[in-house]
Specification:
about 200 residues; alpha/beta; Spore Coat Polysaccharide Biosynthesis Protein SpsA, Chain A; nine-stranded mixed sheet; three-stranded antiparallel sheet; 4 helices; about 25% helix; globular
Length: about 200
């Protein structure tokens, strides 16, 4: 059984190396899914800043965007490339794994503490197993496994002292931060009813 790191990126040349460095010797495979979201107009749907070269230099498997992704759900599903029994560890290009990954036990899934650069903290489901029917659906944080929603409430919480995630959200140039805030607002509005219905 392999541990597959699932990374989504777009023009992350400055942030991706540290993300991939943090995964060294802790995962068996890294899948990087590239591409813009359809909400924004782009000359091309793929990264233009060397993100692909960086990913491939680290030995990551590259998934290009044939077009702009409809939303984050579609893009995250494209990163779930594993065999039955493999474990997925979800991390974004602007995040770093600090410490160790959960010691995976079949039949469980894991939430990890996410520490934002400005001091905010939250729990998120970040590690789960491929059982033949695993997918994101309805919301970027809603993972379904064999018809069951993997919510934080039912997850085993990995002690932050053993391993956690640093999220550098918005710690970037002003224009990029502005666009990302606009995207997150659009995404949250689009997903709000689904999250409320499923208590995500």
């Amino acid at each position: 059984m392999a541990i597959v790191a699932c990374v989504i990126a777009f023009n992350e040349g400055k942030l991706l190396p540290a993300c991939l460095d943090s995964l060294e010797m802790k995962v068996d495979r890294v899948v990087v899914v590239d591409g813009a979201f359809a909400q924004y107009e782009h000359t091309v749907p793929s990264s233009t800043d060397g993100t692909q070269v960086i990913a491939e230099c680290y030995g990551a498997e590259w998934v290009d965007a044939p077009r702009a992704w409809a939303d984050e759900v579609e893009k995250r599903n494209a990163s779930l490339i594993g065999n039955p029994g493999d474990w997925y560890f979800v991390i974004d290009a602007d995040e770093r794994l600090q410490g160790e990954l959960p010691v995976a036990e079949p039949g469980r899934y894991y939430a990890m503490m996410i520490n934002t650069w400005n001091g905010a903290q939250s729990w998120g489901v970040r590690m789960f197993q491929e059982t033949g029917d695993v997918r994101y659906e309805g919301a970027h944080s809603a993972v379904w496994q064999d018809g069951k929603l993997l919510d934080v409430k039912g997850a085993r919480r990995w002690p932050p002292a053993y391993g956690n995630i640093l999220h550098l959200k918005y710690a970037r140039p002003v224009d990029y931060a502005r666009r990302m805030r606009a995207y997150v607002q659009w995404r949250n509005e689009r997903e709000r009813d689904y999250k409320k219905r499923h208590r995500v």
